Amino acid sequence: MHRFRSIVLLVMALSAAPASADDALESAIAEVERLAVTAHWRESNAGIEALHPRRGAMSDHQRHRIDYVASRNRALAGDHLGALEDLGRLLQQAVEPDLHVRAYTTAISVAANVEDWPLAFRWLGQALERMPEASAPAASRVHGVASYLLVLAGESNIARFHATRALAMAEAEGAIRETCLALSEMGLVEDHAGNYREAERWRRRQIDACGKAGDPVFTAIGHYGVGKMLNRQGRHAEALVQTRRALEVHGKSGYLSGTWGARMVVAESLIASGGDLDEAGHLLAGALDYYREEGIHFAIAEAEEHMARLAEARDDLPEAVRYYQLAMASQAAAERDVRERRVAYLQLEFDTRVKEQQIALLEAEAEVAALQASATRRRQWLLAAGMGGLLATALLLTGLLRRSFLERKRYRWQSEHDSLTGLYNYQQLRKLGEQAFQQARTRAAAFTAIVADIDRFKDVNDRHGHAAGDEALRSLGGWITGVVGDAGIAGRSGGDEFSILLEADAAAAEVLLQRLRDRVEPITVFGQTVHFSISAGTCQSNGDIDSLEELIHEADQALYRAKQQGRDRVVHASGEPRAASRGASLVVVGSGIDFGRHASERCLSEIREAEVVFCLVDPFALAMIRGIHPDAIDLGVHYATGKDRRETYRGMDAAIMQALHAGHRVCAVFYGHPGVFADVPHAVVRKAREAGIPARMEPGVSSEACLYADLGIDPGRWGVQSMEATQFLVHDRRPDPAGLLLLWQVALSGDLACTRFHAEREGLQSLVDKLLHCYPPDHQVILYEAARLPIETFRAERVALRDLPEARYQEYTTLVVPPLHREGGVAEDAARAAFA
Fold first, then answer.
1. CB–CB of 287/324 below 8 Å?
2. pTM (predicted TM-score)
3. What residue ranges define each of the domains in the chain, with the CATH number in brackets?
4. Is 215 helix (H, G, I), strand (E, B) or coil?
5. Which of 132-141, 571-580, 785-794 has the lowest average pLDDT?
6. 160-173 pLDDT tens trace
7. Are 327 and 284 contacting, i.e. CB atoms less than 8 angstroms apart?
8. GGDEF domain location, by residue (predicted)?
């Protein structure tokens, strides 16, 4: 009767007087939309058919509304592929923003139903871009469908954010239907997170809100969700009541997907509560047929697991084992679907640069979590079915080993490649390049290095945003991959700089670079067109070049000249005077304790201008220095456990002197002040001057300077005795207890072999014994460590002298011994100042 009443209303509206024809047409379209929202999709389709003769009189917006309702009705009727085709055509047209966003949300849901995850996530990305143009209720729907997809991709936390955002926007606008939909997404998020009581609470709110909105389908989905959560809590009788309500509404509306989902939960409740097993078997058999036809593997696995439990309830153990085995196979297919959703989600994240550097880690975490869940579930099934434990364990271990092998293979790839461009990273480029360079030298073959970067890359970032800069780097990396192929080794050296190594002469390198420059074209990011060019420098090996590092350095210098000559060009290093011919020189600079704050402009300038840079600094400073000079050499590699530090220092000397004898301008960067408690800086300056090479040392901020500032001590007030702890211990040095005593590297006290880097109780006790000759056992001393990063705080731990052997030490811990307290004297003021 309702269908005929709706059709009569439509006919009456369309036959109205001409003066009200437009209003009548609009009223008829609104009635078609209302019927669709209230789940009377058959009546809605009848209304669309009645409106067909008037289609020519409709505006574009009215036709788009009718097309959207028809597509949505088609999806509700179960024709998902046809609905996708219709929605795809609608999305390509110039549609009003709110309707466009609604079409996107429906299209995404339908694409998810047919498990076309790349399409669903691509449309989600487009919907998020269009969202700012839409109203708050429409934007709420985008957040809702984003939550739905992210739940399926295993991103519960991000899904909860979108669902919460959708609910807040809908409630703020008083949008009843959007509130209904957002509550549904909140229930789904908590369901997948395993928070069943919380999910039940959201589903009950959904029933109230969707009832007020006049949406029977989502009201029924709320009852279905409550029933499912009650089952998870063991309240099967209550669950049966809720789910039968959902089944009744879905059956009347003809919503097949909801009907079969409700039937399966009814069956689950009947089995768990010992109800009508025949009815449960009938419901599950129908659901299994439907889901197999639709190819929904997760639902198939769930239905087969319920069939196994039904067989157990009937004491048919062989049948139960058979269904458990089927469920395991279906679960494996479902896990593949989850991975496909995960890959589609990560692709969306990658394209929008939301989590560019975290994609590999997120994917690994998701796969490990899926593996753990899968292993747990399989063990439970095998135990419940009574299958052979030994055989099952062997099969499971085989799967785990295979997955572990694949994981190691993937992690190895990630460790060798740049995550943004897919090219080799700096370390792998040098590793492979060294092998190729040595092989070319053995065969006396030509070998050429190319160093290229994007012209005015900072302007690209500043003008168009970092997303444009990332896309420029990614595009250039792809063009380099296509041009180089297997003919050479290509990698990203850092920032916007790329290196290419070829076993070929400079002419072949020029041909390759020309092909690369021909490929460079403008890119489009978020509707902006970005133009850029590249410059490159090349150098072919010859008898004067002994190492790959030197070859790349010459190519880098040629790139520098290309920049000076106007950019967008290639400059060859061959045939030009080498930079080293200007004469070798050495400058030793200090990085300070905290490089980011203490490095002077002179220090930074020397690093930039040097041909070869050596570093003995902490990892944070080394990373920052390599940002200025990517070829910086870490002297820390000379250290080794059990190795005599004096031997280590001579190895550092030899490396620096080798670069000087090769004619290079060398800058050596040392931690703190390069001339304080430092053997190598003084040694190389002396050796360089003896060899007639200009050498000088620039000061830096030392740990002692930080100590005075952090502890509030003025060394000029009472005098300072400063020496290395082992030197103080071994030699006959008696301190003046009226003055301040600083003992450096106290952890290494007594290390005459110069081989350890940790504290030993015996050496510390010997140090305490010597100090007890001048200070009482309870004299308060300070263990000081300077802060190496702006986010750190310095350490100033006060302990009694007698307790030093039990304290905690780093290699660089300094012992501060304040002056003894003397009544009315200067020492009293000094002691107070030291502890202020």
1. no
2. 0.39
3. 305-410 (no CATH), 426-576 (3.30.70.270), 581-701 (3.40.1010.10), 704-834 (3.30.950.10)
4. coil
5. 571-580
6. 888 888 889 888 88
7. no
8. 445-575
